[in-house]
Design brief:
alpha+beta; Heat Shock Protein 90; 2 domains; elongated
C-alpha cells in the first residue's frame, strides 16, 4: 500500500514538474519572440541552440529549420560574420563582447553584442547569447543632426539617451543569459521575466521618443480639421484611459481648419492626452479643447488639455518641456519635449500651468495661417 501511495505521489510530482517546465518553456518562447532584435543562443560548437522569430527572419529560415544548424553557414555576410567572431571570443574569455558596424550592405548599421553563459550544466557545454540590434534609424538620425544646423542641439540629447539606454540593455542581456541557463524548476525564473519585459518596454519607449523628437516636420501648407485630429489622438489614448480609470472628454470647433502637418500635430496632442492620463487620479477626467485664440493681429489655433491630478510642482514647472526631464518613474521625459518641438516647427508655442481649481493645463498653439 505504501508503495502505491509513494508511486502516486511521485507521479503527481512528475506531472507538476512537467507542467512547470512546459509553462517555463512557453514563457521563454513568448518573451524572446516579443523582441524585435534578432537573438540567438549558440553552443560551444557554434551550432544554433535556440533563436527568436526576429533572428529567423534575419537568417531567412524557419525556427525549426535553424535549430541545430551550424551558425557559420549563415556567416558569409555581416553582421553574422562579426557575431560569430564575438561569440567565439566570448566563449574563449567568458567576457561580454560588442562591436558597432556602420555602412553595412544596403546602408544599414548594427550593434552586435555577445555574452557567455557561464553558469551552465557542464554536460551542455558553454553557450553564448548573441544580439544583433539594428541601429540604422539611430545612426541616420545622428548623421542628420551633424549635417543639419537646425538639429545641432540634439547632439546632447543623443548622448544622454545613449547613456540611459546602456542600463536597460545590460539588464536585458543579464536576463536573457539567466533564461538561457535552463535551470528547470527554478522558482526564481518567474521573477526574471517581468524585469525583462520592463527593460524591453523602456528601450522601445526611449528609441521611439528620441526618433519622434528628432524627426523633421513635413508639409505644413495643407489645412485639416483640428477637432478631427484631436478625435484621432483621443481614440489612440482611449485604452490607456480605460486602464487608468480616467474618462476622456473632447470639445471643440468643427470649423477650425488651420494649416498643419497633420501627423505631427496628432502626435503632439496624443502626447498631451497621455501625459494628462498618467497624472490624473483614478476616477478623474481629462478634458481636450480645441478652439481659436485671437492674438493681436493674428488668429491662432489652440489645443488645451487639462487633467485632474495634483498639478505641476512649482520647482518643476519651468522645466517640463526640457528633454529627459521627468518626475514620473519609468518616464522618458520626451513626451512634452516633443510637443514643444512640434509647436516650434509650426512657428507656435507650448505652455504649461497649474489651474486654480486644481490639476494641470498644457496648451499647444500656432498661427492658423
Amino acid at each position: 500500500m505504501d508503495d502505491v501511495t509513494e508511486r502516486r505521489q511521485a507521479e503527481r510530482e512528475a506531472s507538476r514538474l512537467n507542467a512547470f517546465v512546459t509553462t517555463t518553456a512557453a514563457l521563454w518562447r513568448s518573451t524572446v519572440d516579443s523582441l524585435q532584435t534578432p537573438l540567438l543562443v549558440l553552443d560551444g560548437s557554434d551550432r544554433i541552440f535556440d533563436l527568436n522569430r526576429a533572428a529567423a527572419r534575419h537568417l531567412g529560415v524557419q525556427i525549426r529549420d535553424a535549430i541545430g544548424r551550424s551558425f557559420p553557414d549563415f556567416c558569409d555576410r555581416e553582421p553574422c560574420r562579426t557575431g560569430l567572431e564575438l561569440a567565439r571570443t566570448a566563449q574563449r574569455t567568458g567576457s561580454p563582447a560588442e562591436r558597432h558596424l556602420d555602412d553595412l550592405p544596403g546602408g544599414g548599421s548594427c550593434l552586435v553584442r555577445c555574452s557567455a553563459v557561464s553558469d551552465m550544466d557542464h554536460a551542455s557545454g558553454t553557450r553564448t547569447v548573441l544580439l544583433l540590434q539594428d541601429t540604422t534609424e539611430l545612426v541616420q538620425l545622428q548623421r542628420k543632426m551633424n549635417n543639419d544646423a537646425a538639429f545641432a542641439r540634439l547632439g546632447a540629447i543623443v548622448a544622454a539617451v545613449a547613456h540611459d539606454v546602456r542600463g536597460p540593455l545590460a539588464s536585458l542581456t543579464v536576463n536573457l543569459d539567466a533564461l538561457a541557463i535552463e535551470r528547470e524548476g527554478d522558482p526564481g525564473l518567474a521573477a526574471v521575466l517581468p524585469a525583462l519585459h520592463r527593460s524591453i518596454t523602456r528601450i522601445n519607449d526611449l528609441m521611439k521618443a528620441l526618433l519622434d523628437y528628432g524627426r523633421p516636420t513635413g508639409e505644413i501648407s495643407r489645412r485639416a480639421g483640428l477637432l478631427d485630429v484631436a478625435r484621432a489622438a483621443a481614440r489612440n489614448a482611449a485604452e490607456m484611459a480605460r486602464e487608468a480609470g480616467v474618462t476622456l472628454e473632447l470639445r471643440g470647433n468643427e470649423e477650425l481648419q488651420p494649416r498643419m502637418e497633420q501627423r505631427r500635430i496628432q502626435q503632439a496632442i496624443e502626447n498631451l492626452i497621455q501625459n494628462a492620463i498618467q497624472h490624473s487620479r483614478p476616477g478623474g477626467a481629462v478634458l481636450v479643447e480645441v478652439d481659436f485664440d485671437e492674438s493681436p493681429g493674428e488668429l491662432w489655433a489652440r489645443c488645451r488639455v487639462t487633467d485632474s491630478g495634483a498639478g505641476f510642482r512649482p520647482e518643476a514647472l519651468p522645466r517640463v518641456f526640457e528633454p529627459f526631464f521627468s518626475r514620473r518613474p519609468g518616464g522618458t521625459g520626451l513626451g512634452l519635449a516633443i510637443v514643444q518641438r512640434v509647436a516650434e516647427q509650426h512657428n507656435g508655442r507650448a505652455r504649461a500651468e497649474n489651474r486654480a481649481e486644481g490639476g494641470a493645463l498644457v496648451t499647444l498653439e500656432w498661427p492658423v495661417g
